[in-house]
UniProtKB/TrEMBL annotation:
Cross-referenced Pfam families: SIMPL
Source domain of life: Bacteria
UniProt xrefs under PANTHER family: PERIPLASMIC IMMUNOGENIC PROTEIN, SLR1258 PROTEIN
The name this protein goes by in its record: DUF541 domain-containing protein
Gene Ontology annotations of biological process type: DNA damage response
Origin organism lineage: Bacteria, Bacillati, Bacillota, Bacilli, Bacillales
Organism encoding this protein: Paenibacillus foliorum
Signal peptide positions (record): none
């Protein structure tokens, strides 16, 4: 948004500025878990609990800190078949999903493969982030301020007026680092699953008001 108007009878130029910083993710958040089905709820729960315990133990043996493994979804669903318009009870489905934070991105593939080998049958999401995004965001914020200043100077030059050196007002427009999603596929068992985190873009935006004369 670029405009010029009057505030308190003083002419101003209002601009928006954006800044983006690209960085390599250093953390992965993986959502994986075990889904079990059985006509007996007790059996389905027991099998699920045993499988999850095995998965968690395998991740701990890889060096994943216990606090980095958290349950984020546990549910029990009743399943039915439909025959001739009738609902026929089929059994129960127990879903236990874990959220695993991986502090070393290059270990993501190994962690997924290990979990799958030990009973995981659902890998629903992988997102890449940075552990400390503040520094990158501040860089993007500085670029956004400069971007807004350049826009204001361009407008002032076009109008043939002189821009006040400092803005009368700057408003930060909150933005956040958007985690990079990874499309999950069927994971190979013969070798480590290749995981490419790519780049993470962190964006900041501001709204600036400049007086001119």
């Amino acid at each position: 948004m670029n405009t010029h108007s009057l505030i308190n009878n003083r002419p101003i130029i209002v601009v928006s500025g954006e800044g983006t910083v690209s960085t390599v993710p250093d953390r992965a958040v993986v959502e994986l878990g075990v889904i079990t089905e059985n006509i007996s709820l007790a059996v389905a729960q027991k099998k699920n609990a045993e499988a999850i315990a095995k998965v968690v133990d395998s991740l701990l043996q890889l060096g994943v800190p216990k606090e980095n493994i958290q349950t984020f979804n546990y549910r029990i669903d009743t399943e039915y078949n439909y025959e001739d318009g009738k609902q026929i009870f089929r059994g129960y489905k127990v879903t236990h999903l874990l959220q695993v934070t991986v502090n070393k991105v290059d270990q993501t593939g190994i962690i997924i493969d290990t979990a799958v080998k030990n009973g995981v049958n659902s890998v629903s999401n992988i997102q890449f982030t940075v552990a400390h995004p503040e520094a990158h965001y501040n860089q993007a914020l500085a670029l956004a301020v400069k971007n807004g200043e350049r826009k204001a100077l361009t407008i002032a030059s076009t109008l043939g007026v002189t821009l006040n050196k400092f803005p009368g007002k700057i408003e930060e427009i909150s933005q956040a680092a958007v985690p990079t999603p990874y499309q999950t596929k069927m994971f190979a068992q013969a070798e480590a699953t290749p995981i490419q985190p790519g780049e993470l873009k962190i964006t900041a935006a501001v709204r600036s008001e400049y007086y001119y004369f």
